[in-house]
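User: Hey, my collaborator sent me this sequence without any context and asked if I could get a structure. I don't really work with proteins. Can you help?
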Amino acid sequence: MEFNDLKAFVGHHDNFEIRVISHAGSRIHQVELEDVEGRRHLLCRRGKPVLFRSLDDVYLELKRAGIHRAYLVQHVAQDEVVGRDAHYQEALASRMPLVF
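Assistant: No problem. I've predicted the 3D structure and written it out in structure-token form, which is a compact way to encode the shape of the chain:
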């Protein structure tokens, strides 16, 4: 989903979840929207996923789109190394609420 379309989506839908995916050790964040049907959309610009270097940058973009709540989800590569599934894909596993 393009960031330009996010504001319109937020205006017409109220049952969705925004996740800020944080990749441990790299300080890079991506934003993902899960809609009511369970489909996940990475937020993009010109067809490419947007990577943020700080949570402040994420907050500013989401506030511009009219979003005031999201969840921070930590992607830990060690889970995959030791044979566990990456749990950042699971909706309720290890997430922290963000309010801005």
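In plain terms: The radius of gyration is 13 Å. You can pass these tokens on to your collaborator as they are.
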